[in-house]
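User: Fold this; tokens only.

Assistant: Input:
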Amino acid sequence: MEGSKTEEKVRLSRTDADRILRGYGKMAEALRSSGTLGTAFGLGECFDETALVAQMYDLRSRVLLVEDTRERLLLYSHYIKGMSLEACARLLNKSRRTVYRLKNRALDSFIKIMERKNV
């Protein structure tokens, strides 16, 4: 049809979801060092802590929407709290291998939530 556009739905990969969630830790670090961040990146007074906090809240909210309790706990512990996967395995009383499989399922669940929320 002339003049109509078809929108392709782009599906996030697990790698994309992992990168997005890892951004939470980077934003937290930026907030901790915000006194020097603006100077380091040449931002001066343009550094907007409020925007970072809003993005962090949004990511945390989406993680908390994951239905499966174990998946939600893993995502929250690993990405939001910054725990290693080995520490998460101990927390969940699972083997490292099982936690890696659980992480893949959790990232798939997170992707579905991201797609539902029109990111």
